[in-house]
Write a structure and sequence with these properties.
The chain is of the alpha/beta class. The protein is built from 9 helices and 13 strands. Helix 3 packs across helix 4. The chain is globular, with a radius of gyration of 19 Å. The structure holds NADP nicotinamide-adenine-dinucleotide phosphate (NAP). The site of NADP nicotinamide-adenine-dinucleotide phosphate has 27 residues, from strand 12.
């Protein structure tokens, strides 16, 4: 395992963190809690000490599962629990809500579900255009001063939004989407590197595409978000699968590695990336972790990966479809 420092967190983080979205039981088909708990234990056994979760993942369910798994295992002081704040389920739709009031409500619920009295990293899940960034940042700062959280992070923020946030509260980390196919966050990652802000890259496996386990005939469960993911629809799906096949051959021929290992290593080796999040709810699916360390992607390999993409993906598309809704303007919290 490789390790990295995140500002305001006293222990070093493993550079691969476990993502727990699917453990929430919503948006990814059936999930088994005991299997999820075994996955968390397996991640810890393999040297992963950073677990990323959020109240939005199954409306608290993923946090409950993480809380159970970590309580069973003990050793809280050796773990980095990263959770988030600022989203709300209303029926089947998720909305952004990063008001001071909401943040103060959510923190205690997250601490209870996670069975702990402090969070290592508390991240604002999405910017909320109805709330001044300064209000959100000031609330996060208050929680840090109260000792309920150690470090403050944001997710899905632009550079301009992070600049504003940082004028009010110390920013330890940012969490953008980043993988071989989705690179729009490069300006954010570069800004973070220049300003000493750690980055946690999410969807490094591109929602499973970069595992090599998705095929033209793969069927997704009724509620699986990949049913509406534009990458998984024709005509783009065939283009991305063609890229996957070429990348798989490249990983094997050039490095003797799997596509999944290439995808994780690629993200780890991009400048400014501190931690990559690997989402799974099956312990055996972390086995390729062994393949990730002890080698690096060089410039020629980066160029070849880019060439494969330009030759296969004619209509690239990003992860924008996942952005949560903004509440009606009538709910604007303050005039700014
Ligand atoms: P991901 O890591 O790109 O991909 C997860 C998918 O890959 C799942 O379908 C998983 O299957 C599959 N997978 C993992 N290892 C595999 C293996 N060895 N063989 C075959 N399939 C494998 O997507 P993600 O989970 O959405 O993203 C990672 C984490 O980032 C999330 O869990 C969450 O913590 C965080 N995230 C944050 C945001 C944000 O807005 N801040 C947004 C998205 C994600 P199984 O689950 O069935 O094992």
């Amino acid at each position: 395992m490789e390790h990295v420092s995140i500002p305001d967190i006293p222990i070093k983080a493993s550079r691969v963190g476990l993502g727990t979205w699917a453990m929430g039981g919503v948006s990814w088909g059936h999930t088994d809690d005991d299997e999820s708990i075994r996955t968390i234990h397996s991640a810890l056994d393999r040297g992963i000490n950073l677990i990323d979760t959020a109240p939005a993942y199954g409306d608290g369910h993923a946090e409950e599962v993480v809380g159970r798994a970590l309580a069973e295992r003990g050793g809280r002081e050796r773990l980095i629990i990263a959770t988030k704040v600022g989203l709300e389920w209303r029926g089947n739709t998720i909305f952004r809500i990063a008001t001071r009031e909401r943040i103060f409500e959510e923190i205690d619920a997250s601490l209870r579900r996670l069975q702990t009295d402090y969070l290592d990293l508390y991240q604002v899940h999405w910017p909320d255009p109805l709330v001044p960034i300064e209000e959100t940042a000031a609330a996060m700062l208050e929680l840090k001063q109260q000792g309920k959280i150690r470090a403050i992070g944001v997710s899905n923020y632009s550079v301009e939004e992070m600049e504003r946030f940082r004028c009010v509260a110390p920013l330890a980390s940012a969490q953008p989407p980043y993988n071989i196919f989705e690179r729009t966050a490069e300006d954010i990652i570069a800004w973070c590197e220049a300003h000493g802000v750690a980055t946690l890259a999410y969807e490094v496996l591109c929602r499973g595409l970069l595992t090599g386990q998705i095929h033209p005939d793969t069927r997704f469960a009724e509620d699986d978000l990949r049913r509406t993911d534009p990458k998984f629809q024709p005509p783009r799906f065939a283009q991305y699968l063609a890229a996957v096949q070429r990348l798989e051959e490249f990983a094997r021929n050039r490095y003797g590695k799997s596509l999944l290992a290439l995808a994780v290593r690629w993200a780890l080796d991009q400048p400014g990336v501190s931690v990559v999040l690997w989402g799974t709810r099956h312990p055996n699916r972390l086995e390729p972790l062994n393949e990730v360390f002890g080698w690096r992607i060089d410039a020629a390999a980066n160029a070849q990966i880019d060439r494969i993409l330009s030759e296969t993906v004619r209509d690239p598309v990003g992860p924008e479809f996942m952005a949560p809704s903004v509440r009606p303007a009538t709910e604007a919290h303050a005039i700014f």
